[in-house]
Amino acid sequence: MGRAEDDEPPPKRVKVSSRKGDLPKSTLLTDPASCSLNDLMSHPLVRQGDDEVVGAKGVVKKVEFVRIVAEALYSLGYNKAGARLEEESGIPLQSAEVKLFMQQILDGKWDESVATLRKIGLIDEKIVKLASFEILEQKFFELLDGKNVMDALKTLRTELGPLCVNNDRVRELSLCIVSPLKQVLAGMSGQDVVRPKSRTKLLEELQKLLPPTVIIREQRLVHLVEQALDLQLDACRFHNSLVGEMSLLTDHQCGRDQIPSQTLQILQDHSDEVWFLQFSHGGKYLASSAADCLVIIWEVKLDGLFCVKHRFSGHQKPVSNISWSPDDHQLLTCGVEEVVRRWDVESGECIHIYEKNGLGLISCGWAPDGNRILCGVTDKSISMWDLEGKELECWKGHRTIRISDLGITSDGKHVVSVCKDNMILLFGWESKAEKVIQEDQTVTSFVLSTDNKYLLVSLWNQEIHLWDIEGTAKLISKYNGHKRSRFVIRSCFGGLNQAFISSGSEDSQVYIWHISSGELVETLAGHSGTVNCVSWNPADPHMLASASDDHTIRIWGLNQVKMEHNDTVSNGVHYCNGGT
């Protein structure tokens, strides 16, 4: 439920864990003076058949499974247990040739290791040359470090050079001989360059370079377990809380109680239909606007209750769009085809009014540096001003239509607008490059994800489309179930890691979908009029706000607020009339 039927279902976005940085050292990779590989692993054994499988699904090869378990035991320091597993199973962790190669690296037997490299089953000659280059470079540095300059020069000329792998690197290495005090290489000082890395570090780098069928990646089993846990989280339709500890003994599963579904507070200060609302980036404030031409800033108290901080009046027409500055210290408000006002959030003062003679403004947004603003204009252009009102640039043509949505990516490179009824334009104000998203239906509103990777588009035909806008734009998911026939209904990303989609609806309800699966996970009833807009608190995945034609804003959460307060409490719901 919640996904429109397609000829081909959109793929899931799978979150895969990856390890970054240097591989942690295991007891296999220690200094050659302290141990040898033969002391830690059993002697070469006869391999079992590679076609044996374990597990009910018959997809896990027994040989591979035993090998990664053995590697995990060695990595944890259980050397005797690892050797015993190899001996009892008859499945060696590494082949005899690989173990010999690894020991030669630790012992500094460079020529022998290069020769053995060609015997360990590498098919790709490019990998053989790259690994040989790494080994011979280490040989070069250790010779240079031992003051054997002529031998180092010979290695450079007769061994490293003929590989033709990295001629630029060969020239850089020659500087170590010609002028060791002057060369600066890869941002490092000359002293750092001529100092050889540890042989253990070299072996770690070679493990990353060689295919895993030859040398198993260190901590491979841990990586697979972490990946399985991440996949469980991604598959959980209701996961909306930070995970403390996940047990390997049970599967992860959340309940519906993690989704905000209960009205905790009703805000009633607007006297007409509430059209728009948006939480600040830090989640401390909520700004709302309505057909009463009033803008209200609500402050979220530590107890989760909302109280009025400021009421902004001055617009002559209903306010259709609001935009928080990057630091949440200022707010832009745009009247319907009127002017844009900039307000100071702390003092409540209107700092500046932006307008164009004979034209109305229909949308507003901030450049990421907070020093410029952008506005859509009724002549279908987009203007950029500095804070003092000087127009810096104006992009004319079909840049926008009379839809009060304007997106600016957080890197400041692209502006997003609706340039035709069914067409969204992404253009770079510096690069001048343009990218177009074309829908089959009229676009009624859109919103960017906080990471700028996705665009959520609400359409005239009661569908919401999720677009991946990195690189070539592609449609990856559709959501439906909500009602829209007459009004502009806005949707939003939200929840932990923006794992959910929420939207208002003309049936007076709030709809919530799981973003990856498209499943409709919750429908929230309570409003008595069309829900025009929703906003999820970016700092609290359990707090959702909705604005309605019934003149109210509802705050949705997990648990019922029970507090002694001067304001009216009815049926467990806290009604706020601006009191603090």
TrEMBL record:
- The record places domain CTLH at 94-151
Return the PANTHER family for the record: WD REPEAT PROTEIN 26-RELATED, WD REPEAT-CONTAINING PROTEIN 26-LIKE
Task: Please name the source species.
Answer: Solanum pennellii
InterPro entries recorded: CTLH_C, LisH, WD40/YVTN_repeat-like_dom_sf, WD40_repeat_CS, WD40_repeat_dom_sf, WD40_rpt, WD_repeat-ST_regulator
Keyword Repeat included in the entry's annotation: yes
Residues in WD repeats: 267-301, 312-353, 366-388, 500-523, 524-566
Q: What is this protein called?
A: WD repeat-containing protein 26 homolog isoform X3
The lineage's top-level taxon is Eukaryota
Q: Where is this region: Disordered?
A: 1-28
SMART domains referenced in this protein's UniProt entry, alphabetically: CTLH, WD40
Q: Among its keywords, does the record have Repeat?
A: yes
Q: Which UniProt keywords apply?
A: Repeat, WD repeat
Gene field: LOC107020475
